[in-house]
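User: Predict Phosphohydrolase's structure from this.
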Amino acid sequence: MNDPSDDARDPIDGDDVPDPAPPDEPTAADEISADTDAARHEYDPDAEHAFPDERLNEVLARLESDEEIVAYLEAQNVNPVARKGYNDHGAKHVGIVRDRALRLYDLLKSGGVEFNGARQQGLDEADEPVIVALAATLHDIGHVVHRHDHPYYSIPLAADLLDDLLPAFYGVADRVRVKAEVLHAILCHHTEEQPLTLEAGVVRIADGLDMERGRSRVPYEEGGRGINTVSSQAIERVSLREGDETPVQVVIRMNNAAGVYQVDSLLKAKIEGSLLEDRIRTVAINTHSDGRDGNGSIVDRIEL
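Assistant:
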């Protein structure tokens, strides 16, 4: 995910202060349903899914045991974290993005959304989650070259890794097509590029959903107080669940208004142009703002 420079200016508070909430009205925290936490989980290969998952599970097992890929995921964190002071972009970030991408994909499939990437290449439905998982895993490896323009460096590096990985699962024609779709999704996680497939849109949005406070722990503890670090610290929980009006609802809980930057600036940019704008509803709630202290609140709730 593209972070702004660490010395970016903090947001300026607005002049308008909302009236305190009457005692008998629910607060933002009260409006979070009890099943929000249950809807946030890691991908479980043994669970029931709304898509054929056998091929995906085989590929995931191979990814986790591939020494070269594992080494890349560790090495790609050095430039952004150790040398630039940004948030985590290594194996932890990749694991979160992949889990959320597959969760998002599963919810969209449950909602009847038809994906176009694999289908237009003449591939199977079972190849859709494979494309999503591979792109999510390899989207940031370009960081081993440089933080700047890393999506473009990721393409040749990922292409080499895919050439080694895919022959175990596909014949020549299909692995060329799977590779093409994975590289497209990797490139389009960058907000400067336009996704042409829903698979790519899923990866793009999932990258933006890794915003919880643990991701900014290292730069924060080392004194980083830029807007991206501070705003990440404000995000307590991100959950994905089935929506009432859309296939997917993203619920973001934050402990102060600084988290608005993560939602309204970073995540919003990922959703726009993803081809999934009409299928996802995002609700961000300031759980530590009840408006009952007489001072009101800067932000109580925002929706995308």
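The chain has one domain: 29-303.
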